[in-house]
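Entry for glycinamide ribonucleotide complex. Fields follow.
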Amino acid sequence: MKNIVILISGGGSNMAAIVRAAQQQDWARSLGAQVAAVVSNKAEAKGLEFARAQGIATEVLNHKNFASREDFDAALAQVIDRYQPALVVLAGFMRILTPGFVAHYAGRIINIHPSLLPAFTGLHTHQRAIDAGCKFAGATVHQVTAELDVGPILEQAVVPVLPGDTAESLAARVLTQEHVIYPRAVAALLRA
Ligand code: GAR
């Protein structure tokens, strides 16, 4: 069985979309794959409750308990590697990863970013798209490389920016499309 390990920091709606796709499309049979664990750097991440309710193993590793980014990433890799992942999926995991961590998972770690990369790397993507007068916004699934939010693009979805949009309304519109493209990108990689 190919194990998928999903990393979250918050609501975990993308994680939930992947878990639901795995159930509905029976990835265990069709792809020989399963969501083996959900890992959060925050104990209060809402997505953990969903994962537990689905019977998925959960792990919490608080980055504040570590002296350095390197120490946290080393401990995080130890937790992840217990599940021998074929794929590590960053789903709203709000941590900058060290080059060593990324290299350890080279070719088997992906992220979703709420912009049409290469535009708007980093934070506050929706407000920045509105401020720039963009007519369209969206989300990108990409391979993770050492540089933040850069790396080969696997999937994108586009939504309109509508008159009167706030960062919140645009984020909600983009998020519905994230839930479409992220499970699709994961399945495509597992099929490859
Ligand atoms: C998503 O919009 C995701 O694209 C974004 O955080 C949200 C997490 O939502 N990720 C980033 O900003 C990464 N830099 P979720 O926890 O409900 O999946």
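NOTE: The beta strands are 2-8, 33-40, 57-60, 85-90, 109-113, 136-143, 153-160.
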